[in-house]
Amino acid sequence: MSGWNALPEAVRRERQATGIRQWRAWAERHKASIVDPGSPLGRTKAASPAGIADVRNAMTAYVIVRAETHDQAVRLFEGHPHFSVFPGTSVEVMECLPIPADM
Question: Could you tell me the superkingdom of the organism this chain comes from (predicted)?
């Protein structure tokens, strides 16, 4: 066992509470840019021509932000509590593109 799950339960609970407080403070600082505060993510399934299967990915939560540019959006996450409290190594920022008008 390693990482988050190797921590004693009391330590995990305290870190989680600290992380949530810090996330709320981050969200308050960036509230003008947050479109959807998101939520933690759970189990993942994939649908394909072969059927439905349980799969794993590294995503643990999501939040939707609005910014003038992709670079400005990613800068909102500099110093995010995800890095100091939770065992994550990065925050991935993806653009949501418009659906082409001819569809």
Answer: Bacteria
